[in-house]
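Next comes a concrete protein, fold included:
___
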Amino acid sequence: MKNFWKKNSISYGAITISILLMLSLAHPVQSQQKQAGNNVLSTTGTSAFWDSVGGGKAISLYNGKVPNSKAGPASYKETNDRAWSRKVTDPEMIPFIPDPGKRTGTAIIIFPGGGYSGLSILNEGSNIANAFKEAGIAAFVVKYRLPSDSIMIDKSVGPLQDAQQAIKLVRMNAGKYGIDAAKVGIIGFSAGGHLASTVATHFDTTTIANVEKTNLRPDFAMLMYPVVSFGKYAHRGSRKALVGNDSVGPLAKRYSNELQVTEQTPPTFLVHAADDKTVAVENSVLFYQALLEHKVTK
């Protein structure tokens, strides 16, 4: 086992542990829950690509104008390949749905990392989703907008809007996918872990249109080597991309998510290597300590 951890990146070791945890939480659905709300799903034109990596048709997060958006310069063009997405302008999510006989009723929404400057859509997206799918867990990879003053009115809230919209759509369409709407969790990697920790601690701040009053609180969270704090232990690239260089201003404090934990924060599973040279392990330690302080233990 020691050699395994040396030879493999932490993301794949982490996902193995995560799936075991999820299987302990997941139980087969006895009766399909009635779908809440209207079917608001709209597929996009990138389906062929996602079919090639085991996913279903990509689903636009918004019907119509994307909130908090503005016209960008002609040079701002979204790019996608098998491994990375950059300059995302059309946020979407990609479903990876198990066969009916394997479904557990649990769903996981995946936020890939990339320093808020790109999305590792393969290693921290479709590869992870396929592992969950194989275990009977419905997975949704979110291709969220990356913070940019070029295309956003307020770049600091753009990723959170897309994440909350993904939760809303999954819950509203739970019946379609054989999901229990009370078993919808999130997982994020690196900067995607920051987004996941934001979703887990800012769910009372609704950043999207939600006339249906859909619950935006995830039922559980998994943070894989996450960026959490924008203070002393911040991953500077992620902090700069989302809120700028200031480590003590109100935005930095708002998105230092160890400071936002409450008794209502969902149960959280953390994985982080002590010798991580990119994102300091103190990010996870601070979040863990906050969870203990607020008695979020199960």
